Amino acid sequence: MSTIYDVAKLANVSISTVSNYLNNKYIGPEKRVDIQKAIEQLGYVPNQSAKRLKTKKSNQVAVIIPNIEERIYSETLIGVCLPLEKAGYKTILYMTDDIDTKEERAISECLTSEYAGVIICTCNPKNTSLFVKLQKRTSTVFIIRKPAKLNGYNYIGFNDNETIFNITDYFLKRDNKSFCLMSGPLAYPNETECIEGYKKAFSDNKIPYFDENIIN
Length: 216
Fold this sequence. Notes:
This protein is 49% helix and 13% strand. It has 216 residues and is α/β, with parallel strands linked by helices.
């Protein structure tokens, strides 16, 4: 198997010049041509593991979700994996089954790994201290469910308040006044936003709502 030393020798350049080429640093155009020819002739493939150890960068992204049985999570996983794969990243999947301890173990492993980033749908939105550690360690994006007491986080999901408001308002304006809202556990901030949107639609239409029609 060819090494960086073989490439440098064949291209008649120093090892550091080959290293600069592989790391997209500037070198003269003639040397770039010689190095590329040498790489192709030798069939040289850079050692990605060694490169990651040196640069402390990884091509792996951790995805933490409750499961892949529910459609929202399976489709989200597909939507996450495809663009990551095209960008040259590999996905490491953790499933928590909506169990706090499983999520904590997954995050703890992420804290000791050299992942390029973590994408998480949390089942424990109040686990602020662990989220803070995770954000300091690597790029972190929350999806679908928001953390409860975390500042300055990245989030991709729905505007739950606006979405439920618009749906409720649509029905109310068509004289459908007796329907209920079924939400998830109120521990998730998203569910509270849904209820607020539901109530606001009734209020804006000057129609009373009934607490028994909000099921969670």
